[in-house]
Amino acid sequence: GEALAVSARVAPLGSRLVLLLVEDLTEARRIEAVRRDFVANVSHELKTPVGAISLLSEAVMDAADDPEAVSRFAGRMQIEATRLINLVQELIDLSRVQNDDPLEDAEPVRVDTLVAEAIDRCRHTATSKQITMAAGGTADLRVWGHRGQLAAALGNLVENAVNYSPARTRVGIAARRVTAPGGDLIEIAVTDQGIGIPEKDRERIFERFYRVDPARSRATGGTGLGLAIVKHVAASHGGEVSVWSSEGQGSTFTLRLPEAGAPAPAPAPDTTGA
Ligand code: ADP
Q: What positions does the domain Histidine kinase occupy (predicted)?
């Protein structure tokens, strides 16, 4: 009688344990699959420009007595080499944001400085496409976090806004403080009048290597890693990134980050030794 009662009490616990184990295994398998996909994607992304460079170098050798063809092939080799460099740099950035705890090196970071840096980074492309960039509301706002990672995140959003917009449009960056139960947040919104993002892709664009239109993304030199970096940085800072978009009209990416609190008061001067 007693044994039966005990096993009746233990059985539900046992089945929950089995369930937890199964869930754990499923999760482990999922993580393993994501890792394998990532390695396969990286290999594929690296092979494309390397293959092109190899073919182009053969073409250069074959065209040795045609200087015009040589310079044309060399120009294309340079484009492929740049793509390779961008990809390797973004892979390094991604692994850095995934491995470093940003809050270990956290400090108050001025939003106007971050915005100015992000605009600077795209000035060349924006000027050549006659895209106007305007920022507002950034004065006196400070976020709490890792300066380099925050700059990378905002830089990627502004870069995308410029890349996925037609000529003679406007990119706006607006910042404001929003009150939230867990402490005030700083919201930085990057708005473009670009091609927009189809609804079915909106969830997935934050995945590594996901692109709405691979051909267009390659044309802009995109790696498909930028938004994965942004999402990781936002999350590891206790913030988030979200997107609003209307196809053919434009997109707004909004970054929400914890506000840097008031600076700690300076320690009282030490007068004991006077
Ligand atoms: P990429 O290096 O290809 O730009 P991202 O991870 O930064 O990679 O972005 C993923 C995809 O999301 C892009 O390939 C593009 O299709 C889409 N996307 C990102 N930002 C925008 C934007 N501002 N407007 C339209 N599409 C965008």
A: 41-261
